[in-house]
Amino acid sequence: MQISARGDYAVRAALSLATAYPSLLSTQAIAAEQDMPRKFLEAVLADLRRAGIVRAQRGAEGGYTLARPPREVTVGAVLRAVEGPLAGVRGLRPEETRYEGSAENLPGLWVAVRAAVRRVVDEVSLAEIVSGRLPAHVRKLTAMPDAWEPR
């Protein structure tokens, strides 16, 4: 799975908003805290607003806040809002792939990959990341001997 800059910025902005929840934060404050380009952040926040993850308030005291408490917003929801589906194979959803011959069973693997990604990003809330209390099954993955090693 590849997380684009857009996805990374979206999650980081959502974490800033989770920390401030229910207060409003300006794009300037989020951009400064997370060291990201303000214009790009504005586009990301617009995607999150359209997806119902954040609310915007206009005016001198305006800004952004999460539309729901941080414990109710998953990383998966944030990523889907800006990236679309989490797992794709040549532009298809894993269950839509079809192969012949020796690759005929490959769709099952692609579906399993998507399920594994979902098991992490759809089961970790913004509140859990901010607090540093990730679910046990996620902590277990990060504790595997080769988890932090590149391949």
From TrEMBL:
Task: Give a Gene Ontology cellular component term annotated to this protein.
Answer: cytosol
What is the official name of this protein in its record? Answer: BadM/Rrf2 family transcriptional regulator
Q: Name one GO molecular function term.
A: DNA binding
| PANTHER family associated with the record | HTH-TYPE TRANSCRIPTIONAL REGULATOR ISCR, WINGED HELIX-TURN-HELIX TRANSCRIPTIONAL REGULATOR, RRF2 FAMILY
One Pfam annotation, family name? Rrf2
List keywords of the entry alphabetically. Answer: DNA-binding
**Native source species:** Micromonospora taraxaci
Record keyword Transferase present: no
The answer to whether UniProt assigns keyword DNA-binding to this entry is yes
What is the superkingdom listed in this entry's lineage?
Answer: Bacteria
